[in-house]
Design brief:
Blueprint lengths: L2 H18 L9 E2 L4 H4 L7 E2 L3 H28 L1
Antiparallel strand pairs: 1-2
């Protein structure tokens, strides 16, 4: 592989490795905790928005809301 063709490949691999190692977030928006001891250890100073943990948290809240509604419906059925 010549140097011209290898350069974009190497650049892409380097960027990928940096992301995997917790490097810069490349302009991603983050949600800081507001606690300097925690934010100072996170890449970008907070949790990256649009990442897997955000999706998991959303699914958790949906499940909690569903369970609360199911419990309320069950309680109403027992009253009648």
């Amino acid at each position: 592989m010549n140097e011209a063709a290898a350069s974009p490949v190497l650049t892409g691999l380097r960027a990928r490795m940096q992301r995997l190692e917790g490097g810069r977030t490349h302009g991603r928006t983050v949600l800081p905790f507001g606690i300097k001891e925690i934010d100072g250890r996170l890449p970008g100073g907070g949790l990256a928005l649009g990442a897997l943990h955000e999706a998991c948290l959303t699914l958790y809240f949906i499940r909690v809301c569903f369970n609360l509604r199911a419990d309320r419906n069950l309680s109403q059925q027992k009253e009648h």
